[in-house]
Amino acid sequence: MTSTKTRRRIVPAASENGDTADKQDQLLLSAAICNGEDLGSFVRKAFASGKPETLLHHLKHFTKSKESEIEDVCRAHYQDFIVAVDDLRSLLSDVDSLKSSLSNSNNKLQNVAVPLLTSLDAYVEAKNKCSNIALAINSLNTCVQLMELCSRANFHLTKNNFYMALKCLDSIEMNFQDKTPSTTLKRMLEKQIPAIRAHIERKVSKEFGDWLVEIRIVSRNLGQLAIGQASAARQREEELRIKQRQAEEQSRLSLRDCVYALEEEEDDEIDGVVDGSNGVNGISGFDLTPLYRAYHIHQTLGLEDRVFIVEDRVLRTGGGLISKMEVENLWDTAVSKMCSVLEDQFSRMQTANHLLLIKDYVSLLGVTLRRFGYPIDALLDVLSKHRDKYHELLLSDCRKQFAEALAADKFEQMYMKKEYEYSMNVLSFQIQTSNIMPAFPFVAPFSSTVPDCCRIVRSFIEDSVSFMSYGGQLEFFDVVKKYLDRLLTEVLDGALLKVINSSIGGVTQAMQMAANMAVFERACDFFFRHAAQLSGIPLRIAERGRRQFPLIKARDAAEETLSGLLKQKVDGFLSLIENVNWMADDPPQGGNEYANEVIIFLETLVSTAQQVLPVQVLKRVLQDVLAHISEMIVGALHGESVKRFNINAIMGLDVDVRLLESFAENQAPLLSEAEANQLKSGLAESRQMVNLLLSNHPENFLNPVIRERSYNALDYRKVVAISEKLRDQSDRLFGSFGTRGAKQNPKKKSLDALIKRLKDVN
Fold it and tell me: Would you report the helix, strand and coil content of the chain in percent, each value rounded to 5?
């Protein structure tokens, strides 16, 4: 037996009395062999020292020591082996006795069982014959019943009584097919039963297909009728909204709230047609029997999933033909496909009118389906998703239309011969300045650009509202307003700016454009009111959120262009300032020539412009021109062309400025006294400069209070440069500017020092 105990590791004992090296090597070798270690080191050491005989001697000594141990082990187990052999010999004798006993018992059993087995075989053979006879009788009965069912099934098939034929087939399969003893009959049944069912399915499907062909015509008429009723309902709602807008327009100044409720009519006409309870337009009730028959047969065949009718009345009357969940799932599938088609087609469309047309059809379809309880949110979501694209295309179309309208405009006042022209071009956009009908022919203060652009904007508003008003959506004014803002601030304003910066070539055209901008300001108010009315928002609510004029960039550019052209005209007259005698012995009594020419031009301008320009526009332009004239007068004194001048020349300039101020004051009947004074303020710089040069106390200029009150338009540098151009030192306002080291009046010392410091800073 193999011992499972771990071998004890032998460690050589240390020599207590200093044994010899040879004895120690022997102990180490014995320990290594007992521990199963590698003896290579001992071999190498023996050969290295030249004493292999010593190693061999040690090995032999170890062998002899182990032989005695082996002999002791053998002597210890020898006695046990002898005992085991004796036990085996005793067992062999017992086995021989058992074998003899078994042989005798077997012989006795054989002698008794042979007669019994012979009788049993005879009994089994007789019983098998009896069973076969009974089985043959049962098989014949089964075949008779089977043939009766087959005959009955054939009879029902010939009479097109498919349900009874299928019931016969089910009975054959359930009761006879697996029990049929004849393999021939079984093969026949396995082949013919599926063929008969396929034949029945084809026949029923053909009848159902014929019914679908007939019902398709009726369904189309029903759909047209349903959409027509939905369209009529939408038209009635639109008429009510128009009445509401008209009523609100009439009562806009009143504090009363006008409330309208849309009347809903219950339309049972469609249900009546489907029920067959009445006849409308020749589409009286249709027969659903083929549908129910087809479903019943498919149900019997276990093919219910092949029926795909989505119709509310079939759901309610089909007796389980389809469930509500199936209808909803099938409707979701149909909506998903419609949405996919719409997404694809919308992505391809590049014309706003096409998008609007498809949207109108889709929304009408949605309204019709919603009346019958079908959810259409997914369809409306597709429309909402393409809202931005539609408006971008609409903005692009309007941009082209604006460009064409502006390119065709000659910037001449419109001439209207008839009242309908006035109504079409003025009243329809509420841009009239008076509610009194003018006499005809009538010359409008605007050119053809205004009504043409107004029509484009109005069409944009109506198209935007039409697109946003799908599915009964009510609160969409903010969206319409947002895109209307973009149309005005980006598209129309940009188109006007482009024309102003590139196509305006004269004062007449610039004046007409500025007049157009004033009319556009009234038109923009109408645009937002019109958008609110079409969106069903009360005007008083829409007017609360009014914003600044959206065409302000174009308006400012038009007025700047007009002012610039007028300044160019004025500059031509101001060039006569070179003829002024700056060292005159006496001041001119009637003003200088340039001033008289400028006054004549300005008076002519006002008489012409007041027929076209609104008062406020004319005031802003005149004020800008007068400020330019004032700047040019001061610039002439400050410029290099005037080296020196005397007090008489300044007195002449005083007369010129008074003439210009008188012109401004004379505009009070046209404007108002306050606005005339504001117009007069455009001459502030030249007036203050002349007053300072003629003042007996010019040192007051350095007083902050007086300077803020009387000289706030003057620049320090111009004052210093102009003051040095007086005729001689005695006439100068500030003598220290031209002399150094001269004795000065003590009263002027502080003033001269301050002005000198200002010169250094500047």
Answer: 75, 0, 25
